[in-house]
């Protein structure tokens, strides 16, 4: 088991050595927008003569694969698809090449990239990854059930209103849950939601000295609100529900509200997949009046590992795939609704796009409501809204996610989960050298 | 009777294969031991150098280590109990002359051909999911609230899935043993007036003892490292309720990218496996001496 990365690295180095200078190897995630880009990329090859070699992987496999490759300087890829979590960490470690060429290219128009997302992919003002597709989170709700409950959803609701509405909409006899939220353990699953939610309660992962904050009242308020909401109005088996499980529940008409990724809007309003397509409304993620909303910020982005021997060609491809021209090409061939969302200001000023995507304004509003450089009410030493951009976070948050998932499953109390989260995180942060 | 020459010849001819197998085993083991004493994190290049026993202290000091150890033993014990008892019962049934016996035997054995992650997915979504699963619908049909198996009984659920997969293996081995029992011996006991329970207790069970021992030994080796079923269904949770040692090593080494601590966990797992194996060999392996 321990030999595999070494052998794989050596093998890939040998491969990289023999590859043509004009062939780019691209690792990407198997989501719809990326698959479409792969299909359209022959236009790039025709234009430039640069051949493309695709490695398309499922999200978790991609993460493990590219992390191992970049950390061992494997050199397997010229372009990697990474998220807003990896980009600043890897850039600081010198693992990524800055995209200076794109930043200087007037036609590419780097200033057109949505500022919160551009900031999340930059270190010291330098762009290290170009966003291909971006998202925040917001509330999707059933307009008919809301009406039946005698309530009106404000555009920017509070958690108090969400609690009241969720309980009012719940109809267990008819299998309708007032609210569906993520409960499956994982840093990109329940902890993405709970970290974003905690921001709106004034909680934070660490204080300025990197001391974990799970023993503070703000986290207690966050977890108590979440647990009581799910106990009163959540679906059975919520501790194993992630994005996909909740999407299915909502599409089947079993959720009054669902707070999750903005990308889900097109799925729940698509009449081919959703039984409630014509009864969905959108609102900003809730707050508690402290100035931060409980929504996150994420972008699947393209970056060049420092080990790439074809950096210029790689930057050329990234420029092509994340350009305004690419958006127009997708719109031309597949319609505006299928354009990768959430990356460019100009897209949200385009009347054709706004007509095709009725949730466009709310998506943009949600993205702007998240500030990765100031994610919480109190000051923090880290960047990131629903994550902490330090290398150790994925492991630490997966562990904490397990504890919170156990609290949701009724296996332990909220107080025990918070106490154990505090101990485990302190232990890991001490080991990593943040706490002396 | 082998002469000294034939023994020497056999040893000489075996040597290359033994050497290759030895290297095959020893190189990864030595590397794992080496890494277990190093500060080595894939994602933190600042963690370098000799770590002493720090990685071991970190793994053994993990709040979930004791529970993982307990879960590992409980998982092995639970699956063994179900498969040995169930396998014996099924073997006895399948040994009866019935119509369609061949097809029935294939059906009983078929779960063994399903890959572990696939089996886990089928059980997770098809059977045990409180919303979509067959059991959920069954509970609802009787007016009961569906059970959220993986949240309320995570370790038990994993045991059921793993036992379902290993039951065919136990059945197959035990059935083979049963079929080697001489018919005359059974008939003689029957003629002497022994009832079914006594025939089972004094004739069949002692005859099957060696086969049961083999089932226990082979299964234990595999069950100590159960991973795919946990990864697919519970992810080791909720909390640490279904985390076994193998999953703890995965969580430390792969999810946290901490190769040093992961390797230390791997070495600890090897030591635990050996302790269990020695204990088993002493406790039940004596059946093989005969």
UniProtKB/TrEMBL annotation, chain A:
InterPro entries: Bact_solute-bd_prot1, SBP. SUPFAM superfamilies: Periplasmic binding protein-like II. CDD domains: PBP2_TMBP_like (cd13585). It comes from the Bacteria. It is found in: Periplasm. Coiled coil: none annotated. This is Sugar ABC transporter substrate-binding protein.
UniProtKB/TrEMBL annotation, chain B:
It comes from the Bacteria. SUPFAM superfamilies: MalF N-terminal region-like (SSF160964), MetI-like (SSF161098). This is Sugar ABC transporter permease. It is a multi-pass membrane protein. Pfam families: BPD_transp_1. The chain crosses the membrane at residues 12-37, 73-94, 106-123, 155-178, 208-228, 259-281. Keywords: Cell membrane, Membrane, Transmembrane, Transmembrane helix, Transport. It comes from Devosia salina. Residues 69-280 form the ABC transmembrane type-1 domain. The keyword Transport applies. Belongs to the binding-protein-dependent transport system permease family. PROSITE patterns: ABC_TM1. It is found in: Cell membrane. Its main location: membrane.
């Amino acid at each position: 088991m321990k030999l595999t990365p070494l052998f794989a690295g050596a093998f890939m180095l040998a491969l990289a050595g023999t590859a043509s200078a004009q062939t780019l190897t691209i690792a990407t995630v198997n989501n719809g927008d990326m698959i479409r880009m792969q299909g359209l990329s022959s236009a790039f090859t025709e234009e430039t003569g640069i051949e493309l070699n695709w490695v398309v992987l499922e999200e978790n496999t991609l993460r493990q694969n590219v992390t191992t490759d970049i950390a061992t300087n494997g050199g397997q890829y010229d372009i990697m698809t990474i998220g807003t979590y990896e980009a600043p960490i890897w850039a600081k470690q010198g693992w990524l090449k800055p995209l200076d060429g794109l930043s200087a290219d007037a036609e590419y128009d780097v200033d057109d990239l949505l500022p919160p997302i551009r900031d999340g992919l930059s270190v010291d003002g330098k762009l290290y990854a170009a966003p291909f597709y971006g998202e925040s989170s917001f509330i999707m709700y059933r307009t008919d059930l809301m009406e039946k409950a005698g309530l009106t959803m404000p555009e920017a609701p509070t958690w108090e209103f969400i609690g009241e509405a969720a309980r009012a909409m719940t109809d267990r006899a008819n299998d309708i849950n007032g609210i569906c939220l993520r409960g499956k353990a994982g840093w990109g699953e329940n902890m993405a939601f709970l970290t974003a939610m905690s921001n709106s309660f004034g909680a934070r992962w660490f204080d300025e000295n990197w001391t974990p904050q799970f023993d503070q009242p703000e986290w207690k308020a966050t977890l108590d609100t979440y647990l009581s909401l799910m106990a009163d109005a959540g679906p059975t088996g919520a501790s194993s529900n992630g994005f996909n499980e909740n999407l299915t529940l909502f599409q089947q008409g079993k959720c009054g509200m669902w707070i999750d990724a903005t990308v889900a809007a097109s799925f729940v309003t698509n009449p081919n997949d959703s039984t409630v397509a014509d009864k969905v409304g959108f609102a900003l993620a809730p707050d508690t009046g402290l100035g931060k909303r409980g929504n996150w910020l994420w972008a699947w982005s393209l970056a060049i590992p420092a080990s790439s021997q074809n950096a210029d060609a790689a930057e050329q491809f990234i420029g092509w795939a994340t350009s305004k021209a690419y958006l127009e090409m997708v719109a031309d061939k597949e319609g505006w609704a299928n354009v990768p969302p959430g990356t460019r200001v100009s897209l949200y000023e385009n009347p054709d796009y706004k007509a095709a995507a009725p949730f466009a304004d709310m998506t943009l509003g949600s993205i702007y409501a998240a500030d990765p450089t100031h994610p919480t009410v109190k000051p923090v030493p880290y960047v990131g809204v629903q994550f902490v951009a330090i290398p150790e976070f994925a492991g630490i948050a997966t562990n904490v996610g397990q504890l919170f998932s156990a609290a949701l499953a009724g296996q332990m109390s909220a107080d025990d989960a918070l106490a154990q989260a505090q101990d485990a995180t302190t232990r890991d942060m001490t080991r990593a050298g943040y706490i002396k | 009777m082998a002469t000294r020459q034939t023994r020497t010849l056999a040893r000489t001819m075996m040597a290359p294969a033994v050497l290759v197998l030895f290297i095959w085993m020893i190189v990864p083991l030595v590397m794992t031991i080496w890494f277990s004493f190093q500060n080595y994190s894939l994602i933190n290049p600042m963690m370098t150098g000799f770590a002493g026993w720090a990685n071991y202290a970190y793994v053994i000091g993990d709040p979930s280590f004791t529970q993982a150890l307990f879960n590992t033993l409980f998982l092995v014990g639970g699956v063994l109990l179900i498969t040995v008892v169930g396998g014996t019962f099924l073997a006895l049934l399948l040994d009866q002359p019935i119509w369609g016996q061949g097809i029935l035997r294939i059906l009983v054995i078929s779960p063994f051909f399903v890959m572990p992650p696939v089996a886990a997915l089928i059980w997770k979504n098809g059977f045990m999911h409180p919303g979509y699963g067959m059991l959920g619908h069954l509970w609802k049909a009787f007016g009961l609230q569906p059970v959220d198996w993986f949240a309320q009984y995570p370790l038990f659920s994993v045991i059921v899935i793993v036992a379902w997969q290993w039951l065919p293996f136990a059945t197959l081995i035990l059935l083979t043993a049963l079929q080697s029992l001489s018919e005359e011996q059974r008939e003689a006991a029957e003629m002497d007036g022994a009832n079914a329970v006594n025939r089972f207790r004094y004739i069949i069970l002692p005859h099957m003892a060696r086969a049961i021992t083999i089932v226990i030994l082979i299964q234990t080796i595999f069950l100590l490292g159960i991973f795919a079923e946990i990864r697919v269904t519970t992810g080791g949770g909720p909390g640490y309720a279904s985390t076994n040692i193998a999953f703890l090593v995965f969580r430390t080494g792969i999810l946290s990218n901490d190769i040093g601590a992961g390797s230390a966990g791997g070495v600890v797992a090897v030591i635990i496996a050996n302790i269990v194996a020695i204990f088993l060999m002493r406790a039940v392996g004596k059946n093989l001496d005969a």
